[in-house]
Amino acid sequence: MAQVRAAITGVGGYVPPYILTNEELSKMVDTSDEWIMERIGIKERHILLEDGKATSDMATEAVNQLLEKTNTSPDEIDMLICGVVTPDMQFPATANIICDKVGIKNAFGYDLNAGCSSFLFSLVTASKFVESGSHRKVIVVGADKMSSIVDYNDRNTSPIFGDGAGAVLLEPYTDGNGLIDSIMHVDGSGRHHLHQVAGGSLKPATFETILKRQHFIYQEGQPVFKWAVSKMADVSVRMMERYNLTPETLKYLVPHQANMRIIEATAKRMGVGTDKVMMTIAKYGNTTSATIPLCLWEYEKELKPGDNIIIATFGAGFAWGSTYIKWAYDGSKYAK
Ligand code: UT7
Q1: Active site includes 116?
Q2: Is the dihedral of CA 25, 26, 31, 32 positive or negative?
Q3: What span, in angstroms and rounded, lies between the C-alpha atoms of 91 and 96?
């Protein structure tokens, strides 16, 4: 019997309309367009400004678009996993809220938090349900309202992050295309370099934690940078070797969009030219769980069945990994 693989059969995406440019950010903190472009490679990022709107609202937009594109009814969805670090609330899960807003009534689901690697960890987890035959139409969402935890007084972190959401539909395929393999890792000793100090059970919210600005992102940029460059490349090179993939036979590398220099260093270690690297960082920044599905959304029209794609990720935790996918459909069929 032909092996069942979980194949991506559609991609939806959403970024909120408001654009925060480097020029505007330079009026908020001591920074400049030149510094941000040279050190990070971000020109602008989209921010969800509307009052009363949260991560689930952006995710709902992405999922609705995905369902419309793929001509799928919400009733057909039997599972939804949401990769997220900025859930609407500590509980219940944002996945439940998305299902309610979209009208998905016959599914189970949950949130998965692996820092910036949340989407890829969710994709790999969801693929097991599809491969086992227990679930046939599974949505994987990556969504984050990073502006809700960014300190716009901190020049070290405020240029980096943006808001957005992306979603993919996974279905069982037996033609050899789909998710082929993944190499995933965590190392919790890295948690000290990138985290949110307060708001969890270790340090619940108090007046003091608020005064100390401990509900915002805390990041030591340099160690995170070094780990990201080495780990993302390590697992991706291993994946290429495992399947005898070469820069010529690879269609695209899809790296987490944290820093242009990290992306370029990873591609270089893999021997892959930047023309084969999906990049959205300049216009969306680091949308955390949404970077990878937003890349797939932007480049979908260029993808054809059988295309070899490597997705690489690194994030807080530390959590990182690489996934090899053989693309399953002609993305140009959805081109507007
Ligand atoms: O997605 C989750 C994973 N996260 C990441 O992958 C982020 C990884 N880290 C990075 O991308 C980089 O480390 C940063 C972009 C965060 C920082 O870049 P860097 O080249 O490592 O800069 P740095 O922190 O070493 O700072 C260099 C200098 C410092 O000044 P001094 O001490 O040399 O005088 C900083 O104060 O740059 C200064 N600086 C800035 N200057 C202008 C830091 N941020 C800014 C800024 N504008 N926004």
Answers
A1: yes
A2: positive
A3: 10
Give the end of a domain, one of 132, 153, 176. 176
Question: pLDDT class for 1, splitting at 50, 70, 90?
Answer: confident
Please check whether residues 192 and 329 belong to one and the same domain: yes
CB-CB contact of 188 with 253 (8 Å): no
CA 260 to ligand 1 centroid distance, Å: 13
Section 72-82 average pLDDT: 98
CA of 156 to the centre of ligand 1 (A): 6
Is the alpha carbon torsion for 271, 273, 277, 283 positive or negative? Answer: positive
Question: Which tens digits make up the pLDDT trace of 43-60?
Answer: 999 999 999 999 999 999
Question: What's the token pair of residue 18?
Answer: 């408001």
Percent pLDDT > 70 in the chain is 100
For residue 222, report the distance from its CA to the centre of ligand 1, in Å: 7
CA proximity to 142, closest of 95, 100, 203? 95
- Note the pLDDT tens digit of each residue in 6-51: 999 999 999 999 999 999 999 999 999 999 999 999 999 999 999 9
Does the annotation count 113 as an active-site position? no
From the candidates 82, 99, 116, 295, give the one annotated as an active-site residue. Answer: 116
pLDDT of residue 2: 86
Residue 336's pLDDT is: 66
286 catalytic? Reply is: yes
Show the domain range for 92: 5-176
Catalytic, out of 22, 113, 177, 286 = 286
Q: Which residue's CA is minimally distant from atom 28 of ligand 1?
A: 156
